[in-house]
Amino acid sequence: MVRRSIVAGIGSYLPERIVTNAELAARIDTSDEWIQERSGIQQRHIVADGEMTSDLATCAAQRALAAAGMEPDDIGIIVVATSTPDETFPATATVVQSKLGCANGSMGFDVQAVCSGFVFALATADNFIKVGQVDTALVIGAETFSKILDWEDRSTCVLFGDGAGAVVLKAGEGDGSSADRGVLSTHLHSDGRLHDLLYVDGGPSSTGQVGHLRMEGREVFKHAVTKMSEVTIEALEATGLHADDIDWFVPHQANRRIIDGTARKLGITGERVVVTIGQHANTSAASIPLALSVAVEDKRIQEGNLVLLEAMGGGLTWGSGIVRW
Ligand code: UT7
What we know:
By secondary structure, the protein is α/β, with parallel strands linked by helices. The protein folds into 2 domains: 2-174, Peroxisomal Thiolase, Chain A, domain 1; 182-324, Thiolase/Chalcone synthase (Peroxisomal Thiolase, Chain A, domain 1), CATH 3.40.47. Strands 1-7-6-4-5 form a 5-stranded mixed β-sheet, with helices on both faces. Helix 3 packs across helix 4 and helix 7 packs parallel to helix 8 (256-266). The chain contains 10 helices and 13 strands. The protein is 33% helix and 27% strand. The structure holds oxa(dethia)-CoA. Oxa(dethia)-CoA is lined by residues 30, 34, 38-39, 115, 154-155, 158-159, 217-218, 220-221, 224, 254-255, 258, 282, 312-313.
């Protein structure tokens, strides 16, 4: 028998305010047509004044805990994937811990892998469960990218949105085969030589300022399709699974053309791909749990389904995960 991290509940939160492409076109030199054609984005949610990453994360976490039938103090570890923490320190996870009312002294920390953050956080929590250090985990992807965008830079500001998604994991047992429920594999990579393609031009030890997101979009695009296809194939090979076995492909939502290109390379047909980029835009570490949440809510993802996750982000970082729901 082996220990498995089984998904016990999921929840998400999107800020109330929706900003359409038309609204952006009224402010900067862009158009609804360009944004939709190049990225598939129709709208994005943007936080209200004073609404912080920890608020989004806490709301998503409360919904995930309710879905799992658990209380905050049932959780052994909180991992928040974010590149837009409330403060430089402490970790947003500890703020969430406090907002949830956790009093059990369990650990909470952040993981910083930008758009790949949720996959990295999932892998971290899964490993804590697998070695037996904790029995339950709250894995959250939460971002307020609207706070780090250069709203004058049309090549980046139209692409991102705010939001959060959370998953509760619970230790269970399996026979070690791909028929088990739970996280079956995670594969993580990074290559720091590609820093200049996607980064924020500030931080505590460099400029002392928060900075703004900078991206070589065309170059990032090229790496995205290649690296995300490679890391998903790595996951399938490691688990002895085939693309045909996958019930739902839930990729990071950065660009409709990247999603379609990766799915095509894997031979996963359109009906099995969960796409939320149109409504959410790119919410970085929140995009996968948000997409999972939508597909669970509309009953596409059912218990026992095989779900393939993948993402790539600044660093560059990239990773994949296979989860039997
Ligand atoms: O989540 C992390 C990973 N991030 C990504 O995966 C993003 C990857 N990159 C992309 O999604 C795409 O490269 C973009 C959507 C960012 C851009 O699409 P593209 O097809 O690669 O366009 P481009 O950068 O090659 O720009 C084409 C043209 C340029 O004009 P010229 O030089 O051809 O005259 C840009 O100036 O589009 C222009 N442009 C715009 N036009 C209207 C750039 N941004 C805009 C805009 N509205 N918002």
